[in-house]
Design a protein that fits this description.
Elements: H1 13-25, H2 34-47, E1 50-55, E2 59-66, E3 72-78, H3 105-121, E4 127-134, H4 142-148, H5 151-154, E5 159-166, E6 174-175, E7 179-182, E8 184-193, E9 197-198, H6 208-219, H7 221-226, E10 233-242, E11 248-249, E12 252-261, H8 264-285, E13 288-295, E14 300-302, H9 304-318, E15 323-324, H10 336-342, E16 345-351, H11 372-387
Parallel strand pairs: 3-4, 3-5, 5-16, 6-15
Antiparallel strand pairs: 1-2, 2-4, 6-16, 7-14, 8-12, 8-13, 9-11, 10-12
Helix pairs in contact: 1-3, 2-3, 3-11, 6-8, 9-11
Length: 392
């Protein structure tokens, strides 16, 4: 591992913190990040970058070239907020009811802006750094839309890198692992159709609620009794909709939930197991049961070479002892996965602190820890300098 480098002098940190808090106070949801995109584009232009707008509606790309090398790397930050009502009372709390930066995308945007600002003033690299400010990470797949609209054709990067703050990891530490780091996610909907009847005369019908309840229980065996114990998946039923009257056994029940896994073959196994259970419960109860799968984000999988490279960069910034290389992957999903399907790269977690007092991701008490700004900017700058070294 390389020796630890001194942290960069960043005289604009106080200004950047104010910008981060301004973004936090004005959250915008997927593909509606117009104010944030205006701020980002204006800042990048002020630093002297080449600015491109309109990819995936509100996406912004800044291009910074130095030297003569044809090498090109991409750095990505997400900009969107969540439909969550903020419960914090500090001055920069959300001014938009029902919307909140509950995942730290305001901080991700600020850190990447800070890296662009420093590198524009100190272009100590040889090649092209592409700063990708992506809309709609939360559930809407903005990364996929940017790719579909020609992101990598217009900016043919050799590799792409992402970063997310992570409550539960101490500030000043970073988790960098090869292979799967975030799960893929698939939603499912199961419809159970029986025969409605009077609650006092259940023998005259086919009880869809009983069949649905059996299915909820049976689904808990999908992972425990079908997967190899060393493989990972989660099947969660999150909705059970049935009936409107207290004295009527309803005709239909609808179950919804999600499947999380790290491998396509595991996903396939889980889906086939769910279909078998649906058929069995239907036959046992005389009901009709159908299941529909909605494949959403794929697994986020770091390429080995880029993960090793990012471990070295993180060690140079934080110290080798503060780089976690064997942390467990998360069953959460992340649409940076789409970019990693197109290009080699690595997605890392930067410690946001202990996560006490509700400061966990997607919690109404969450806030990005401004102590991270310095570490995140240093990581991005050192990554560019090492990926695009001068003198090669």
């Amino acid at each position: 591992m390389p020796p630890t480098l001194p942290l960069l002098e960043l005289p604009f940190l106080a200004e950047l913190m104010a910008q981060r808090r301004d973004i936090h106070a004005h959250p915008e949801l997927a593909f509606d990040e117009y104010r944030t995109a205006d701020l980002v584009a204006g800042e990048l232009a002020r630093y002297g970058l080449e600015v491109h707008r309109g990819i995936a509606r509100t996406g912004v790309v800044g291009v910074l070239k130095a030297g003569t090398s044809s090498r090109m790397i991409g750095l990505r930050a997400d900009m969107d907020a969540l439909p969550v009502a903020e419960l914090n009372e500090f001055p920069h709390h959300s001014k938009h009811p029902g919307k909140m930066h509950a995942c730290g995308h305001d901080g991700h945007t600020a850190m990447l802006l800070g890296a662009a600002r420093h590198l524009a003033a100190h272009p100590d690299f040889d090649g092209t750094a592409v700063f990708i400010f992506q809309p709609a990470e939360e559930s809407e797949g903005g990364a996929a839309v940017m790719i579909e609209e020609g992101l990598f054709e217009r900016f043919p990067v050799d590799a792409v890198f992402g970063l997310h703050n992570w409550p539960g990891i101490p500030v000043g530490e970073m988790a960098v692992m090869p292979g799967p780091v975030m799960a893929g996610t698939c939603a499912f909907e199961i419809s159970v159709r029986g025969h409605g009847c009077h609650a006092a005369m259940p023998h005259q019908g086919v009880d869809a609620i009983v069949a649905g309840a059996q299915l909820v229980q049976a689904l808990q065996t999908v992972v425990s009794r079908n997967l190899h114990p060393c493989e990972s998946a989660v099947v969660s039923v999150t909705q059970f909709h049935a009936g409107e009257a207290w004295n009527v056994i309803p005709e239909e029940v609808v179950l919804r939930g999600t499947i999380r896994s790290f491998k396509a073959e595991v996903q396939e196994l889980v889906e086939r197991a769910i279909e078998r259970l649906c058929s069995g419960v239907a036959a046992a109860n005389g009901a009709q049961i159908g299941v529909r799968f909605d494949h959403r984000y794929p697994p986020t999988v770091n390429s080995p070479a880029e993960a090793r490279f990012c471990q070295e960069v993180a060690a140079a910034v934080l110290g080798e002892e503060r780089v976690l290389t064997d942390a467990l992957p998360s069953m959460g999903a992340e649409d940076f996965a789409y970019m990693l399907r197109e290009k080699p790269g690595c997605y890392v977690w930067l410690g946001n602190g202990p996560g006490t007092g509700g400061c966990t991701l997607h919690n109404p008490h969450y806030d990005f820890n401004d102590e991270l700004l310095n570490f995140g900017i240093n990581y991005w700058v050192r990554l560019v300098q090492r990926a695009l070294p001068k003198g090669d």
